[in-house]
Design a protein that fits this description.
Blueprint: E1 6-11, E2 15-20, E3 25-29, E4 50-55, E5 59-64, E6 69-73, E7 96-98, H1 105-114
Antiparallel strand pairs: 1-2, 2-3, 4-5, 5-6, 6-7
Length: 122
C-alpha cells in the first residue's frame, strides 16, 4: 500500500476498507473472505472502478463510478439489499450480487417526509 493513494475508507468492529485513486477496493481484518489473502484486494471487483465503500457488521457495500452498488457478506437479515433464505443457509458469505436502486418518486416522497428539513434536525 506504500505506493497507493487512498481516497476513501470505512471500518467496522474488526474490518477496515480502503479505496485507491485507481478505484481498487482493499479490505483488511476479519471480514475478508472476498479478498486476496496476500494483498487484501477484493478480487471480484478488481476490474471495476470503486469510488465509495461502507461497512456494516459483517457486510459491505461498494459504489462504482457508474452508480452501481455491489453488496457482499453475510445477508441473513437482508442487509445486503437482497432476499435471503431462512434456516441454516441464511448466513452465506461470499455472495457478490449487484443491487441497484431504482428511482421511485413515491418512495422518494415518503423518504422526504421522514427526513428533517435542512437545518431543522429534531
Amino acid at each position: 500500500m506504500d505506493d497507493k493513494t487512498l481516497v476513501n475508507s470505512a471500518c467496522n468492529n474488526g474490518t477496515s476498507a480502503v479505496i485507491t485513486k485507481e478505484g481498487e477496493l482493499y479490505m483488511f481484518g476479519k471480514d475478508t473472505s472476498q479478498c486476496d489473502q496476500t494483498t487484501g484486494l477484493v478480487t471480484e471487483l478488481k476490474d471495476i472502478f470503486i469510488t465509495q465503500v461502507a461497512l456494516g457488521k459483517a457486510h459491505a457495500a461498494a459504489l462504482t463510478n457508474n452508480g452501481q452498488v455491489y453488496t457482499f457478506g453475510i445477508n441473513n437479515k437482508g442487509q445486503c439489499g437482497r432476499e435471503y433464505a431462512s434456516g441454516p443457509l441464511a448466513v452465506k458469505e461470499g455472495s457478490m450480487n449487484v443491487t441497484m436502486a431504482e428511482d421511485d418518486d413515491e418512495e422518494r416522497e415518503i423518504a422526504d417526509e421522514m427526513m428533517c428539513p435542512q437545518g431543522k434536525h429534531k
